[in-house]
């Protein structure tokens, strides 16, 4: 089933002419999750996104599906239990995307450290029990200082005690979004990118019954009629209908900005994802992740009040991260000139909540008393030996006493918790949350949507098990990922594609790999092209079946080329534009516009504006 620019035009017409049951506003991971579940339940669903799918927050994460070990520094057992269970669900419905990749957490003899070796082992054992990986190859273990240094020779050795190794998952955030969107489309949903909700529409009773929308490509404005509307616009959630906030029951948001920087793996060598205290005395923790021959690191948590559509990496962000990285990897001596790519994103945090998904902070951020802490550790140890019940652990947690309580929350202490609200005008708002929780958040929203459709319109919908609703590309046995990927690699190699490139396609497209390579007779065979067959097949599939409309869509969100292969793009970017121009029949004017857009995005991703400013300062 095609899902292209032509499909988009048809879907815009359908949204104008058809009265749908549910309109989803926002094409990030939350909206995509709602759309796929609603369509699977037989609800006539439309979705509009004012940019490309996943262009906002959902392509700018740390690109991990976390298990939440950091929550155990405040012993929030319930959160960790929920998170690891949901992570397993996501891996089951999109088995080609999240992949297990154990995390290394080095421990230093430092009073400000989140864990010491003993408390880390207790936390990891509890984590494994909650995750159900005890006795498996993914079970945690500790290593001593010497082994840490063997693994990461460049790591800071002063006061290093050892490290823990525990299960976590790497992720491709934007691919997870597009695969949900494609599945929703295949199930009958009307999915459209680059259409913006301009204003709500109401009936005579003041009930929301659609939106006025604008096609961002043509400028045309039109009305979309829908029985129900759900707002899943992330950081924009309290801005989109702000003028009717009193009846919409929209929670206040407090977005924070997080950034990540990419360097070549030879400049910062890490064998596996590594997670450590920033060392800056601010309670933050830093991720360092190897990927596709590069190493990226982040993140920051700073309140953001700028342009939501276009957050940028600023010099103070870079200074902070480089200082933290160079402190932990002193031989790296990374500078601004080493940065090959970057990204900045907003987190849709709900104001007033009291803990941070990224940093495990909380309203009670003071030191736990020695007596309470010792009692808790003893109880958890007994629990792990089956000598104490979960209720005993929960009671010990509730008895924790802190030395101080903060009444003002820093940006890194605001919760990633989600909120589902229904206003007097029946506007449904689903806000907050994180990628790991997207399926669960959507399931909660779907229960409300189904009930409202039944109560107000007498519309019944089907029951679905969203824990087994596999997304596009993920239609295979999630317990047999390695063998499945090997099979898709083999059939791709048989088309004349080298092993490494065949594996890349298999990992990117999963069960859609046969569809990708079936286009081999449709792609151009220009012998002068700088693009190999794998790239041409990938571009053709992205344009015809993933609603890819620009080179930036392809290079930044359908693939990660712009982030992890920036050094190779100079040689092939013109060929990529030419390939897309032929498929999409661009005029010379359109082609020139696309070239300009790509150059601007590449320059920003490379941080040219900061590098030039630094150069001027040195010259001056």
TrEMBL record:
<dbReference type="Pfam" id="PF01266">
    <property type="entry name" value="DAO"/>
</dbReference>
<comment type="similarity">
    <text>Belongs to the FAD-dependent glycerol-3-phosphate dehydrogenase family.</text>
</comment>
<keyword id="KW-0274">FAD</keyword>
<dbReference type="InterPro" id="IPR000447">
    <property type="entry name" value="G3P_DH_FAD-dep"/>
</dbReference>
<dbReference type="GO" id="GO:0006071">
    <property type="term" value="P:glycerol metabolic process"/>
</dbReference>
<feature type="domain" description="Alpha-glycerophosphate oxidase C-terminal">
    <location>
        <begin position="466"/>
        <end position="590"/>
    </location>
</feature>
<protein>
    <recommendedName>
        <fullName>Alpha-glycerophosphate oxidase</fullName>
        <ecNumber>1.1.3.21</ecNumber>
    </recommendedName>
</protein>
<keyword id="KW-0285">Flavoprotein</keyword>
<dbReference type="InterPro" id="IPR038299">
    <property type="entry name" value="DAO_C_sf"/>
</dbReference>
<dbReference type="Pfam" id="PF16901">
    <property type="entry name" value="DAO_C"/>
</dbReference>
<keyword id="KW-0560">Oxidoreductase</keyword>
<dbReference type="GO" id="GO:0004369">
    <property type="term" value="F:glycerol-3-phosphate oxidase activity"/>
</dbReference>
<dbReference type="GO" id="GO:0046168">
    <property type="term" value="P:glycerol-3-phosphate catabolic process"/>
</dbReference>
<dbReference type="GO" id="GO:0004368">
    <property type="term" value="F:glycerol-3-phosphate dehydrogenase (quinone) activity"/>
</dbReference>
<feature type="domain" description="FAD dependent oxidoreductase">
    <location>
        <begin position="21"/>
        <end position="350"/>
    </location>
</feature>
<keyword id="KW-0319">Glycerol metabolism</keyword>
<dbReference type="InterPro" id="IPR036188">
    <property type="entry name" value="FAD/NAD-bd_sf"/>
</dbReference>
<dbReference type="InterPro" id="IPR031656">
    <property type="entry name" value="DAO_C"/>
</dbReference>
<dbReference type="InterPro" id="IPR006076">
    <property type="entry name" value="FAD-dep_OxRdtase"/>
</dbReference>
């Amino acid at each position: 089933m095609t899902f292209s620019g032509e499909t988009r035009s048809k879907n815009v017409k359908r949204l104008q002419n058809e009265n749908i049951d549910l309109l989803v506003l926002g094409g990030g991971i939350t909206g995509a999750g709602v759309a796929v579940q609603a369509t699977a339940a037989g609800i006539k669903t439309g979705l509009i996104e004012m940019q490309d799918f996943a262009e906002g927050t959902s392509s700018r994460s740390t690109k991990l599906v976390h298990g939440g070990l950091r929550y155990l520094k405040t012993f929030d057992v319930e959160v960790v239990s929920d998170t690891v269970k949901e992570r397993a669900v996501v891996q089951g419905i999109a088995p080609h995307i999240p992949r297990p990749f154990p995390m290394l957490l080095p421990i230093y003899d430092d009073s400000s450290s989140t864990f010491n070796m003993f408390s880390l082992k207790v936390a990891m054992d509890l984590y494994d029990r909650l995750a159900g990986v005890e006795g498996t190859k993914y079970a945690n273990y500790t290593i001593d200082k010497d082994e840490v240094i063997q693994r990461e020779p460049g790591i800071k050795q002063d006061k290093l005690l050892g490290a823990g190794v525990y299960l976590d998952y790497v992720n491709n955030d934007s691919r997870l979004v597009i695969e949900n969107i494609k599945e929703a489309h295949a199930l009958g949903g009307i999915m459209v990118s680059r259409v913006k909700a301009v204003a709500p529409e109401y009936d005579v009773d003041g009930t929301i019954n659609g939106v006025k929308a604008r096609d961002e490509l043509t400028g045309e404005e039109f009305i979309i009629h829908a029985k129900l509307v759900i707002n899943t616009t992330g950081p924009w959630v309290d801005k989109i209908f702000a003028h009717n906030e009193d009846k919409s029951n929209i929670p206040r948001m407090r977005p924070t900005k997080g950034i990540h920087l990419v360097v070549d793996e030879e400049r910062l060598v890490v064998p596996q994802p590594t997670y450590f205290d920033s060392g800056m005395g601010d309670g933050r923790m830093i991720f360092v992740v190897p990927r596709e021959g590069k190493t990226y690191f982040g993140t920051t948590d700073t309140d953001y009040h700028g342009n939501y559509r276009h957050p940028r990496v600023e010099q103070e962000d870079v200074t902070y991260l480089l200082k933290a990285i160079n402190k932990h990897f002193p031989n790296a001596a990374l500078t601004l000139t080493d940065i090959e790519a970057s990204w900045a994103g907003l987190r849709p945090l709900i104001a007033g909540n009291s803990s941070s998904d990224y940093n495990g902070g909380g309203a009670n951020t003071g030191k736990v008393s020695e007596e309470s802490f010792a009692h808790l550790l003893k109880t958890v140890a007994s629990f792990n030996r089956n000598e104490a019940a979960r209720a005993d652990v929960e009671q010990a947690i509730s008895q924790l006493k802190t030395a101080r309580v903060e009444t003002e929350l820093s940006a890194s202490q605001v919760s990633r918790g989600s909120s589902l609200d229904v206003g007097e005008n029946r506007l449904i708002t689903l806000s907050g949350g994180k990628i790991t929780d997207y399926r669960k958040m959507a399931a909660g929203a779907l229960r409300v949507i189904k009930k409202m459709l039944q109560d107000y319109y007498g519309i019944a919908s089907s029951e679905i098990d969203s824990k087994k609703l596999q997304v596009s590309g993920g239609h295979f046995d999630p317990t047999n990922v390695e063998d499945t990927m090997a099979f898709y690699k083999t059939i791709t190699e048989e088309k004349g594609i080298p092993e490494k490139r065949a594996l890349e396609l298999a990992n990117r497209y999963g069960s859609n790999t046969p569809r990708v390579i079936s286009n081999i007779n449709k792609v151009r065979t220009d012998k002068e092209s700088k693009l190999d067959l794998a790239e041409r097949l990938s571009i053709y599939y992205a344009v015809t079946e993933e609603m890819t409309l620009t080179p930036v869509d392809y290079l930044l969100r359908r693939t990660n080329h712009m982030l992890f292969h920036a050094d190779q793009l100079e040689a092939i970017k013109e060929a990529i534009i030419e390939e897309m121009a032929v498929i999409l029949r661009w005029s010379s004017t359109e082609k020139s516009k696309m070239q300009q857009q790509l150059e601007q995005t590449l320059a920003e991703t490379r941080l040219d504006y900061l590098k030039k400013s630094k150069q001027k300062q040195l010259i001056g």
